[in-house]
Amino acid sequence: MIIDKIAICQRRIHNPLFTLQRIGDEFGCTREYVRQILKSNKLQTKSKRRFKVTCLNCGNEFSIWYCNLHRRNGKFCSRVCYWSWCRTTIICKICGKAFTVRNSDIRGRLKKGQSPPRFCSKRCQGKWLAKTAGFEVHPENRLQKGIGLKWNWDKVMELQKQTGWGSNRLGKTLGIPYSTVSNILRKRRK
Ligand SMILES: [Zn+2]
Ligand SMILES: [Zn+2]
Q1: Ligand 1 being an ion, which residues bring their Cβ within 5 A of it?
Q2: What's the CATH class of domain 139-189?
Q3: Quick one: CA dihedral 116, 122, 128, 134, positive or negative?
Q4: pLDDT by residue for the chain (190 residues), tens digit each?
Q5: CA 31 to CA 29: how far, in whole Å?
Q6: pTM above 0.90, yes or no
Q7: Domain positions in the chain
Q8: How far is the CA of 76 from the centre of ligand 1 (A)?
């Protein structure tokens, strides 16, 4: 009977958990014979349960159980490494703060034809929008805090009576958000 040496080697490569006895039973030979073949081909002779893997994120070597080897996070030494591998840090254009975004989110945005996120929060996005639209807040039209009203309503009404402008133009000249001006006008009309 001819024993296929290549098949034994392949069996070892695909099943690192198998013992020599198990491989020997399969091919009808002794475990000593299997050990000799594996050793001459420079393959591991003992059944292997823990594997040494290098972390994709930090490059450290660590050992892992065979059952966890093919898991999604089996290539990372820790949860922190997996977390940071899945994310990219972006620096906010307005406040300069660093924040993290999931890579899958960025991929999804690029698929839709959108740019990756540039701002840490909605507040920063609003500030950027005000800057690019040529809209600046004038602090002299803002009332003190604690009064209840944020903006000087009388000034808005006065200018509206004089000129008859719409809320967009009023807001631009007074430095008050346009939606706030339209709200003021609607409430005063009632
Ligand atoms: Zn790591
Ligand atoms: Zn920001």
Answers
A1: 55, 57-58, 77, 81
A2: mainly alpha
A3: positive
A4: 577 788 888 888 888 778 888 888 888 888 888 888 888 888 877 777 778 888 888 888 888 887 788 888 888 888 899 999 999 999 998 899 999 999 999 999 999 998 889 899 988 888 888 777 766 666 666 665 555 567 777 888 888 888 888 888 888 888 787 888 888 888 877 7
A5: 7
A6: no
A7: 5-40, 50-83, 86-132, 139-189
A8: 5
